[in-house]
Design a protein that fits this description.
By secondary structure, the protein is of the alpha+beta class. The chain has one domain (11-200): NADH Oxidase (3-Layer(aba) Sandwich), CATH 3.40.109.10. Helix content is 40%, strand content 12%. It is built from eight helices and six strands. It has helices at residues 11-17, 33-43, 63-86, 99-114, 135-142, 146-157, 173-180, 211-214, and strands at residues 25-26, 56-60, 120-127, 161-163, 187-189, 193-198. Helix 2 packs across helix 6 and helix 3 (63-86) packs antiparallel against helix 7. Bound molecules: flavin mononucleotide.
Length: 223
């Protein structure tokens, strides 16, 4: 195991400070293949349906390929922004004019411009397609990859690295599959995760709704 680059975090600190990293990626510092594979080894300790382990991970560290991948991400982002403007009724939230919303928008825009500079781009995939599956099967398939992805982010954090959970390119999933040779008909991409060492290692807990507002004990209350 590669030694921790940051002071050991308690489990609670790790869980509360693993943030989406966009503006604090160190694009100049290389990330070795060894450390990525080490984090994936830990990631794959995650629960998954019937222990089928249908996960496979595409890891992109080639500079030309990163540029091509980032171009698709940017095109998908442009599509999404256009869609938000033309059909705001399809989205639960479109007003990001408060301070936190503006900060997030600036960070999203920064990552959008600089995605190709992240030393490694990771695309987790799982076997099968969910478009016509029952809710049970959808939950089983997505639930067999997402815990591993989050484990991966925790493992990165504990080694002084970080990532951003992104899904925007999935609106152009087939185009990405064609670029990277992923067999689209029987393999689903779960997102795109740029990986880099973080600039500084101190991160704060995120803003979240209080637990009292979101729990229902014994019986659903309200609407
Ligand atoms: C399912 C999912 C999809 C996301 N997609 C994107 C994305 O496409 N681009 C991006 O910059 N951030 C994306 N994010 C990051 C969220 O904006 C971020 O998690 C949220 O603002 C909370 O910030 P935190 O992770 O630092 O607590 C996504 C996060 C999740 C969980």
């Amino acid at each position: 195991m590669v030694s921790n680059e940051i002071p050991a975090l308690t489990p609670d600190e790790l869980l509360t400070t693993t943030r989406t990293i966009r503006k604090r990626m160190d694009f100049e510092r290389p990330v070795s293949r060894d450390v990525i594979e080490e984090c994936l080894t830990l990631a794959m300790q995650a629960p998954n349906g019937s222990n089928m382990q249908s996960w496979e991970w595409l890891l992109i560290d080639d500079a030309d390929m990163r540029c091509k991948v980032a171009d698709i991400y940017r095109a998908a982002m442009a599509d999404h922004i256009r869609e938000l403007q033309e059909h705001p009724e399809n989205y639960p939230k479109t007003d990001y004019s408060d301070e936190a919303g503006q900060r997030m928008f600036a960070a999203v825009a920064y990552l959008n411009e600089n995605l190709h500079r992240a030393p490694v781009l990771v695309i987790p995939t799982f076997g099968g397609r969910t478009e016509t599956a029952s809710v049970f099967l959808q939950a089983s398939m997505w639930g067999s990859i997402l815990p591993a992805v989050w484990n991966f982010m925790l493992a990165l954090r504990s080694r002084g690295m970080g990532s951003a959970w992104t899904t925007i390119h999935l609106n152009r999933e087939r185009e990405m599959a064609d670029l990277l040779g992923i067999p689209f008909a029987n393999r689903t991409q779960a997102g795109l995760f740029p990986v880099a060492y973080t600039l500084g290692t101190s991160f704060k807990p995120g803003r979240r709704r209080p637990v009292q507002e979101v729990v229902h004990w014994n019986r659903w209350q309200g609407r």
